[in-house]
Amino acid sequence: MDEREKHRILMVSDFFYPNFGGVENHIYYLSQCLIKLGHKVVVMTHAYKNRSGVRYMTGGLKVYYVPWRPFLMQNTLPTFYGTLPIVRTILIREKISLVHGHQAFSTLCHEALMHARTMGYKVVFTDHSLYGFADVGSIHMNKVLQFTLADVSQAICVSHTSKENTVLRSGLPPEKVFVIPNAVDTAMFKPAPKRLGSHEIVIVVISRLVYRKGADLLVEVIPEVCHLHPNVRFIVGGDGPKRVRLEEMREKHSLQDRVDMLGAVPHSKVQSVLITGHIFLNSSLTEAFCIAILEAASCGLLTVSTRVGGVPEVLPGDMVVLAEPDPSDMVLAITKAINLLPQIDPQSMHNRMKKLYSWHDVARRTVIVYDCALRCSNQDLLERLPRYLSCGSWAGKLFCLLMILDYLFWLMLKLWQPDMDIEVAPDVHLTSSQHGEGTWVSIEDGSSK
Predict the structure, then answer these.
(1) Where is 295: in which H helix or E strand?
(2) If you ran DSSP here, which 8-state letter would residue 423 be given?
(3) Using an 8 Å Cβ cutoff, are 105 and 141 in contact?
(4) Residue 279 near residue 302 (C-beta atoms within 8 A)
(5) Cβ distance 159 to 313 under 8 Å?
(6) Cα(219)–Cα(197) distance, rounded to whole angstroms?
(7) Cis status, amide bond into 18, omega within 30 of 0
């Protein structure tokens, strides 16, 4: 790759390793594939327990665990301007050319994008979730998103349904929003070496046991399926506030021998749980994409899922049975899936998933978005303010005030500590014999060990 084509990207989100989830996996795998393409990637997130400071991951991926502690649902407390000094330092220190924020619910993402635009950097935002329009939380979140995306260079959504949702919530022009789906590491999620017998049908559920993931639906669906199909057994992996309801259901219907509650399952163990089953059950009430479905399909499981959000876009019709988020309809869908099992070839399904979804393809398509963002014209503060002013009669004025204050704070920081006084982290270009072609690693002191 030619030097002028290489990008230096800062990924920002409150959600990253050691947590495991859709957003965390997306950032990690996308970063690794971008590094293999020759780009430099740095991740910025908040501290997790004793994980603080600068860490290095596979392929030389550098992660800044900023010493901010999570406040609510792994999100840091909003500070507006408290993160500006450290964001500025990282941008200059790593010679970043573009900032990529992930997840609308991430406080750190919103603040980093705001500061990056103040400093004249191009920014890209990826939305991973669907939000409503009526409840108080969604109304406030949509306003925050409207503020952040008012001056974003480009945006990415993981499904067409997600794109429609984001455009409606933020007022962002549809032509600035790209659709790039998630993917799955098929090398990690492989079918069982030997095909499972059909004398006992095992249905696997791996999910956070919360309302949004449809845990209440499971409470009604599982007893009915067990009653209709004596040869069916459930394996439920995951933890959350709704776990108590599932355990009460198991006790009430005397299903202790037919419903195994595994508790929280580490991501490294998910594949070993999936390959013990025939059917994967997803009961989510809202979902922008659902990587869990891809992981199950890659392991050769037939999927039964609620027809919500972007789920119908994820798999071909012969690999998934869709149902309305209603207990009776889900029971019918599970019965249909049980009848379809003799037609399912796990290895063939795995091979199809290899061709359908690839993180390398996601990375290549994301680079195209980066190229579009970097071609956008540079604008000063006065040219950008009208975009914020158009966000509402009173909100627009408030957003303009926030950006003006952020700009003044940035000027004060430049006077107090000029850019030239911030030490730049040298880069070492590793050869293909070390870590693969085009891998970049920052060495703090410029020396190698």
Answers:
(1) helix 291-298
(2) P
(3) yes
(4) yes
(5) yes
(6) 27
(7) yes
* CB neighbours of residue 339 within 10 Å: 10
> pLDDT tens across 225-249, in order?
999 999 999 999 999 999 999 999 9
**Residue 373 near residue 98, CB atoms below 8 Å:** yes
pLDDT tens sequence across 179-237: 999 999 999 999 999 988 889 999 999 999 999 999 999 999 999 999 999 999 999 99
Q: What is the pLDDT of residue 134?
A: 74
80: its two tokens: 């507006």
**CB neighbourhood size of 22 (10 A):** 19
What tokens were used for 308? 């919500």
Contact 14, 106 (CB under 8 A): yes
What's the rounded Cα separation, in Å, for the pair 113 and 66?
16
With 0-12 CB in 10 A as exposed, 13-18 as middle and 19+ as buried, what is 374?
A: middle
Question: Can you read off the two tokens belonging to residue 375?
Answer: 């071609």
Q: How many residues does the chain have?
A: 449
Q: How far is CA 416 from CA 185, 410, 411, in A?
A: 46, 10, 9
Nearest to 448 by CA among 429, 432, 435: 429
Tokens of 56: 């290095």
**Residue 298 to residue 303: CA distance in whole angstroms:** 11
